[in-house]
Amino acid sequence: MISFSCISAWVILLTVGCSVTHAEDSKIVGGTTANERIPYQISLQVLVSSLFGFGPKRWMHNCGGSIVNEYYVVTAAHCLDGMNVSRMSIVAGTNDLRDDGAKGTRYLVESYLIHPDYIELNRSDIGVMRVKEAFTFNENVQPIRYSSDFVDGGVMCLLTGWGYTMPIRIGSTPKDLQEAELTTITNDQCRERGMPVNPTEICTFTRVGQGACGGDSGGPLVCNNQLSGVVSYGTRYCGIGVPDVYTRVSEFDSWIQQNTQTGGSGTSGNSTADEPQPT
């Protein structure tokens, strides 16, 4: 068993890395291309300058997220922390991010809210975003119900995302949405495998060579057709036999409900951080 002291040095958030140096883009390791519609899945993108600041700006995938009603998306707090809403947008309605996500619809982010108890790599890694224009629901864009039920170990769940597929995070991220069926483990089992989780988190581990990776952050873990987890953190090298950790949605269902009212109250959080740069 890997000791906590060894694992802790390699724990890493699973974003693309536009705004924080230790966060790296990635996709699901050991997954397959999602051929079916995942209508609740979105790509949270940030506007970045070209290398060395020359050339036009472009939108770049940073995190995943889940549509929960006509205006709101649930994602990870670390995907939002320090971000400027003027440089954030959401692509919905497509599994294909080629051509700047042209096969989907781009929605600008109006505001976001990070859970007040959020501590990076520790707890409450959850937040919500409100889009300026309501989502147009159709066969490709639909909300998902978020869970109020405790998910124990041994439950088969679906993870989707656009993270790296290589454990060492080389090359480019995929343009096609990836998916993997993963099994939850108990928090005691997760701690035995080296991840210092708390009751507000949930873990999955199925086999070596499969799991979440950077860029999957904020994306959905769906169990029993409900949003049960939000991708939070893992290790620097993905799919190496260490569990992936998600925010346990059932611990925050009341907070989500309170802060995703379509009247728009409560989601005023936005930052004026410096423009993120590509890594």
TrEMBL record:
Family matches, as SMART domains: Tryp_SPc
One term of GO molecular function: serine-type endopeptidase activity
One cellular-component annotation, GO: extracellular region
InterPro entries according to UniProt: Peptidase_S1, Peptidase_S1_PA, Peptidase_S1_PA_chymotrypsin, Peptidase_S1A, Trypsin_dom, TRYPSIN_HIS, TRYPSIN_SER
Leader sequence segment: 1-23
Domain of life: Eukaryota
Domain Peptidase S1: 28-261
Main localisation: secreted
Region (Disordered): 258-279
Pfam annotation, one family: Trypsin
Bias-annotated ranges (Low complexity): 258-272
A biological process from GO: proteolysis
Alphabetized UniProt keyword annotations: Digestion, Disulfide bond, Hydrolase, Protease, Serine protease, Signal
Subcellular location: Secreted, Extracellular space
Family designation: Belongs to the peptidase S1 family. CLIP subfamily.
Name by which UniProt lists this protein: Peptidase S1 domain-containing protein
Species per Swiss-Prot/TrEMBL record: Anopheles funestus (African malaria mosquito)
Source species taxonomy: Eukaryota, Metazoa, Ecdysozoa, Arthropoda, Hexapoda
